[in-house]
Write a structure and sequence with these properties.
- The longest helix is centred in the N-terminal third of the chain and has 9 residues, at 8-16.
- The protein has one domain (8-79).
- The protein is built from one helix and five strands.
- It is α/β, with parallel strands linked by helices.
- A hairpin with a 3-residue loop joins strand 2 and strand 3 (36-41).
- The protein starts with 7 loop residues before the first helix and ends in an 8-residue tail after the last strand.
Length: 80
């Protein structure tokens, strides 16, 4: 079995914290610049944890393209 990342959340944090203020959040994984909430997960992750929160997004592993508020996790590597 191949592992691209040992930990998705660690990858997301490393990719975003150089340019943005990143904090933990009680409903999602990370709050960026006190506005954008991200939940990090695999391709089957749903919005149940963050469904009622404005400016909330899923950063998903194992997807090539995004749609709506579902963003491929690999794209955050370009921020680094």
């Amino acid at each position: 079995m191949h592992y691209y990342f040992q930990n998705r959340e660690t990858f997301f944090l490393c990719a975003t914290n150089k340019r943005y203020a990143v904090t933990a959040h009680n409903r999602g994984d990370f709050l960026i610049d006190e506005k954008y909430l991200f939940e990090v997960g695999g391709k089957k992750k749903g919005f149940s944890q963050i469904k009622d929160i404005e400016d909330s997004y899923l950063a998903l592993d194992y997807i090539e393209t995004g749609i709506g508020n579902r963003i491929p996790l690999w794209l955050f590597g370009f921020l680094y």
